[in-house]
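Q: Convert this sequence to structure tokens.
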Amino acid sequence: MLAMSLSATCAGALLAQSFSETLAGAYNGSGLIEQYRALLRAADEDVAKTASELKPIINWSSGFNHEFGRARQSSMSGKVNLESNTVSLGLTASLLIYDFGGTKSRLKAAEETVLATRETLRGIEQQVLLRAVRAYMDVLRSNEFLELRDNNIALLEGELNAARNRYDVGAVTRTDVALAEARLASAKSGLATAEGNLLQAIEEYQSVSGITLEELDVPDALPEISSDVEESKSVALRNHPDMLGIQHEVAAAELAVAAAQAGMFPKLNITGGLNGTEYLDDSRFSRGGRIGVELKGPIYRGGLQSANLRQAMARRDSLRGRLHEVQKRVMQDVGNTHAILETAQASLEAIQEQVMAANIAFNGVREEANLGARTTLDVLNAEQELLEAEADLISAEADVYVLAYSLLEKMGLMTARDLNLNVQTYDPAAYYELIKNAPVQNSPQGRKLDRILRAIGQQ
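A:
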């Protein structure tokens, strides 16, 4: 009953769901993509924080003081009480004029980190979409396996009935009937396994796509991919998120070295302030201000600046080495995937021929068995060979599709934009452009940011 119900549900009683709709659902509903978009916005804010150091820094302070005590002016005078109440208000400002490029280097390093984080987000997007491809093809594969197993049981039941009829007339022995019964029982076990695999594939599909399962259309054609391995490697070196990301990380590390070198030199600031004090007990007051130029720098800090510089240089050298390894890995992954895809395509053609031959052989053996020239075991073996060939064909077709899209992912071309999905793509530069100059909260730009963040929080 379970087999009949599942077969009816998954094989024909569902509405059509296209391949592109599945990928669009995975893109729109991925919590992992949302997570890395938030991490990118956090990296954007590092640019704003560093940019704020190049702007005037203004602080205010206020206070109320109650002073009390007793004093004696001379040995001949008595003691007097001293008591006063004052209110003070102060305003200070400073502006960095020159620090040998240290802050600007850190600002550029933060910008490079943002670009690297964007590539990380693009890599996550590729992983999510490739997982959706695998889930889609696994449902198709599992569903076809289930249909194949279901048809196999119907065929074996027919062979069992034929064996029993021949046994009744003495054409075969009880052994032939037992062989058919054993093969049928094995097929039912295979059907149960196929049902379980399909249920797992459905759960994975719905988890990835966020879409309730519907009947899936078989993709019409493979994506366009160059057969030239070297050309694919060249595309990957220019487009793969890992490659572009590590390049930006190296650039950020170079700028961090420059910032550490600048930290060993003095800074020039313009400073100023206003202050005022009012005495609440009488009419006294004091008001004043100051403006000046301040030059300050380290003399001795126990070797801290030198350690910071050496550390920045070591991190830069480490990332340079990683850049070399990422480049080799990206090229190797493209080459390996190309080779596996070509092998899978050649295997698919061979299996198609195998299925045709196995089908002819099975029909021939069955006819010969009806004429008494073949045994029941010969028929069952021929049927098993046909079943295995058809199962291999189903797997080979799904593998070719998955490998083709895996190659796109290895080349850095497995994004919603590259696949022309019908979705509203995320623009990572939009938020960055709003915050890169560090707007204050109550400015027009700051209020626009608040509205955007409230909208994000309500999603």
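Strands lie at 16-17, 57-72, 79-98, 215-216, 267-279, 285-296.
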